[in-house]
């Protein structure tokens, strides 16, 4: 197993991983500190002035030095909305992966350890789930939710609904990964020893087998956060994600899309660039983790 020293050495010797890590750290810090360092609170209507709408970036003619990335159609500073929107996108992405992990790890662990009809049933259920597009499931569920409740109720529960729907739609990826690892671990000597001394199956699974299956879970979690953020952005762009008064990166892109051809390109461009940077950083770090934690690819670094 790779040590922390070997892990750090591999990280510092990989410029792509360093770059992705710096970008991700910067975006996370920016999102966390947004309530304290953002020039404007885009949720506070008292700070908004419709007369400031669609101002260009500060370095262009007609720009205002208070809004260095310009403003949107509601008079909100684009930089401030990006800071808050990045936080919402990260909350949804991480929350959805937590739901995926809880469901997928539990069902994958149970299927791999129990085998038989339990394994067959859960894996066929996973096959059915994976045959359906995550976006399609989310569109149907969110459309029904929006039709059943008014806009104010939807706005209050949008983050929760997106986390739950995206999480439930993607659990098979975790389940299959964990099941595969469990099948390779459950017949090893340390598991037989745990059974011989009379430990219950629950304790054997969660205390002895699970810790040895977490390496691939860590890798897939990083990539799944990026996928969840992209799914939320797509839903928001279609009008089924976050409302415009509680913007995520996806809803910010959507809110400015209609103004691109009228000349207010900055409303969409800058949130889109941040979304690309966030997703790319997560995917690059996920690929790097996969390579580092794969024993077949390590060459004595640990």
UniProtKB/TrEMBL annotation:
One of its GO terms (cellular component) is plasma membrane. Keywords: Cell membrane, Membrane, Transmembrane, Transmembrane helix, Transport. InterPro entries: BP-dependent_transpt_permease, MetI-like, MetI-like_sf, OppC_N. Residues 86-286 form the ABC transmembrane type-1 domain. The keyword DNA-binding does not apply. It is a multi-pass membrane protein. It is found in: Cell membrane. The chain crosses the membrane at residues 16-38, 88-113, 125-148, 154-171, 264-285. GO terms for biological process: transmembrane transport. The keyword rRNA-binding does not apply. Belongs to the binding-protein-dependent transport system permease family. PANTHER family: ABC TRANSPORTER PERMEASE PROTEIN (PTHR43386:SF26), OLIGOPEPTIDE TRANSPORT SYSTEM PERMEASE PROTEIN APPC (PTHR43386). This is ABC transporter permease.
């Amino acid at each position: 197993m790779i040590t922390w020293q070997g892990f750090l050495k591999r990280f510092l010797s990989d410029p792509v991983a360093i770059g992705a890590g710096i970008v991700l750290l910067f975006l996370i810090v920016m999102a966390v500190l947004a309530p304290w360092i953002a020039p404007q609170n885009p949720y506070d209507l008292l700070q908004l002035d419709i007369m400031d709408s669609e101002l260009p970036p500060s370095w262009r003619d007609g720009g205002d030095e208070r809004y260095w990335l310009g403003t949107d159609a509601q008079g909100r500073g684009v930089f401030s909305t990006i800071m808050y929107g990045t936080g919402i996108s990260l909350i949804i992405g991480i929350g959805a992966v937590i739901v995926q992990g809880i469901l997928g790890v539990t069902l994958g662990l149970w299927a791999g350890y129990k085998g038989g009809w339990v394994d067959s049933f859960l894996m066929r259920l996973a096959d059915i789930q994976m045959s359906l597009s995550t976006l399609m499931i989310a569109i149907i569920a969110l459309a029904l939710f929006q039709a059943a409740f008014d806009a104010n109720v939807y706005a209050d529960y949008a983050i929760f609904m997106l986390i739950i729907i995206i999480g439930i739609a993607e659990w098979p990826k975790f389940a299959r990964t964990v099941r595969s690892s469990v099948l390779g671990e459950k017949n090893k000597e340390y598991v037989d020893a745990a059974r011989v001394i009379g430990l219950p199956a629950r304790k054997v699974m969660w205390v002895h087998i699970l810790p040895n299956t977490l390496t691939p879970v860590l890798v897939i979690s990083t990539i799944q956060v990026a996928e969840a953020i992209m799914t939320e952005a797509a839903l928001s762009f279609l009008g089924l994600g976050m409302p415009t008064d509680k913007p995520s990166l996806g809803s910010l892109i959507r809110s400015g899309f209609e103004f691109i051809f009228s000349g207010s390109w900055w409303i969409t461009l800058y949130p889109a660039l941040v979304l690309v940077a966030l997703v790319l950083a997560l995917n690059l770090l996920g690929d790097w983790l996969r390579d580092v934690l794969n024993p077949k690819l390590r060459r004595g670094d640990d």
